[in-house]
Fold each of these.
Amino acid sequence: MINIHYFTFGPFQENTYVLWDETKECIILDPGNNNTSENKKLSDFITEKQLILKRLILTHAHVDHINGNKYVFDTYGLLPEVHKDDVYFIEKHLATATMYGISVEQSPMPKAFINEGDIIKFGNSTLNTLHTPGHSPGSISFYNLEDKFIIGGDVLFYGSIGRTDLPLGHHETLIKSIKEKLFPLGDYMKVYSGHGVPTSIGFERTHNPFLI
């Protein structure tokens, strides 16, 4: 069984996820930690749970989801893994942060790219990968049918959807991603988003004003 814990970090209130199983191997998704206190919270959790960090995974590379990449690399020696279509945002990390008035350390460049159909392995566990563009061109979502959850980044929120007015966003593409990639996974699937509280496919299918 996969355990999921998330922290809410930074001025954008971004959700950073740690996933692990009975082997204690774990992965981090979307590290938004951006100061000494947040860095300590993340590392203290990993230490207290006696976790073995194996991979640094990004659902997408917007500034609020990559601010902790440098800390994770410096502390654990892990480079980010991301869809190739979002490398643009890593290259623009410092410029984007400056635009928002945020002080950051430049994210290291990815060591590998993740594509639809890839299997993310840690311990005895796996996540399946879907390419779900629209919020960003390289947005990817990770799911596990056995444990009934999706880590979807900023694709789908409780009662809302990801912004498409940011550079390289596209509204119609996002709606298509949600309806054609996420909805078929089943109403029972719990959705862990990049911001806010978890939701479910069933709730969003019937209540989300952007999708009905």
Note: The first helix runs from residue 36 to 48.
Amino acid sequence: MPIALGSRKHVFVDWALIDPGYGVAWGGNVPTSWEMPYGVKITVHPPQIDPTPLIVPERPWEEFINVYCTLLEIDGGFRLYYETHVRKEDGDTDDLRAMLAVAESRDGVTWEKPSLGILNFRGTTDNNLVYGLDAALGRGAHGATVFVDPSAPPEARYKLVHMGREDGRYRVFGATSPDGLRWTAMRKPLLDSYISDTQTVVRFDERRGRYIGYFRGWTHQPHAPGFHGRRAISYAETEDFAHWPTPEIIVAPEAADDPGTDIYTNSYTPWPGTGDAHLMFPAYYVRALDILEVHLLSSRDGMRWERPLRAPVIGAGEPGSGREGGVYAGCGLVAIRPGEWSLPIGPKRWTHNQSLFPVGRATPDNGLLRRAVWRPDGMMSLEAVAEGRCSTFPLVFAGSRLQVNVWARFAGEARFELATADGATIPGRSFAECDPVIGDSPQAIVTWNGDADVSPWSGQAIRLRIWLRRARLHALQFVE
């Protein structure tokens, strides 16, 4: 059966679209190869780190800004939810007293902390706090993540998930809001006697008609932390936001990892503009160094995950970098500026356990948030360092033009060829007739001798062959 590609955007989180070929094809009198890929690989690309902070601590309720945050595009502008704390007398913070604040921007450059008049902090509502304190019924707002629920009535369009403690038990709680600012806490927990002491990420999956959630898990002690387990990522799904089954571990440290490795956060996000590609940017905790570094995980269905790069995509920094203690990723991969996709990150001066020891607090770490920045679809690619070629499985597309996202080095290029399902090159749509795609071309339309029309083959089973030289193919899509 050919792949029903239709008009959806394809990105290279795996080899799903690429024919593995045969080194020695079946049958015939002479041994021959069949559609063998060569010279190409799937590559993970690190982001640029914007040196200008998104948010810095500057208000009395911001004595410490934690790394957990959510970036959303809302009504043509942008909103950043971030966790903030007031320090205790010993200088440390209490997760169960966390508050949730909001910053807003129209252009993604200038951010404001609006005076909302919603929550009372030390006798005044002149602040940008939206959750925690009285609104959270005394449960705090630790690890809160906000999402827009397209299935909900207007009064519950926004939803929030966070960890808290009540009656001596750690629980996962929820809240709803019509505008993402004025929240009503749900009295009953979403999960009882379950500790997800990190940023829990939940969203409504429209394709499946269910809520899906990524939580913290523990190996050996799945539902509560202990000294004999490793942190991991757990998953659950439900049709009823108010009731969740116990999450089960889906990603854990592997045999190839150092034995002192934990997966601390998940930072799940669907790949923007696709319906079948998913990413995580989890912070891996390296116990020996007491630091956290952001890795990248990819998935085609949100359930089975791969780590295509066995190294951090955002590592801890050198002394003086501001992230020598490590770095976490927040939630929300958003195009807040033209030609850029941004993910909020929390760099750390202190290592994970440093705040527990007064002697280690020589360099202040009051927290801030920055941006990790990629070109559109720039997190992964099909790449040929020198020269490479591959072919898709037979596929059926809908559209009249082929649009590609290509980045090529100097003297590099990408070319494309259409072939029948059995491998015969289609006249007029060969590599030789393809006009090369060069340079930084995020939305290039492929042409053959100046002609972009591929509509005669729409709805038919064809192969798309790809030839790269010193180039990266980040995405492809058939469009009208």
Note: The mean pLDDT is 95.
